[in-house]
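Run log, item B.
One chain of 145 residues. Sequence copied directly from the ordering sheet:
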Amino acid sequence: MAAIHSQLSADCIALGRFSLCHLLLMNDSNYPWFILVPDRDDIREIYQLDTADRAQLMDESCRLSEFIMNVFEGEKLNVAALGNQVPQLHLHHIVRFTTDPAWPTPIWGRFPARPYSDQALGEIRSTINGAELDGYQPVAESYLA
């Protein structure tokens, strides 16, 4: 198993695994913000994945995208692989609303993160874990620790 970059571990909550990717939740309740991290060592860019892994990443991203847009009833989904501060390949999935604090601008650096309450985090875990997302498995809460 590839190690999760320390910045992602510090900023995120591990929710589960797909066959290729770890599924993380950014600990910022301003936005429903999920991150897929392929379980591959020394990969910074999507093109560095082999053909099968690229296809698997896109499949997992699309399954997650459809699910979170349906659950959160978003108006727009931002998907990005920036990696300017965290070199490990990771794919952000951010559900956006015209009422969110940063709309319509990008979210990065706009507002301080608001950590999830235990109750809100429990609700997200329950929703994701009960969703029957194809290929998804929940992980223990101490997974990134």
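Observations after the first pass:
- The chain has a mean pLDDT of 94.
- The radius of gyration is 14 Å.
Flagged for discussion on Thursday.
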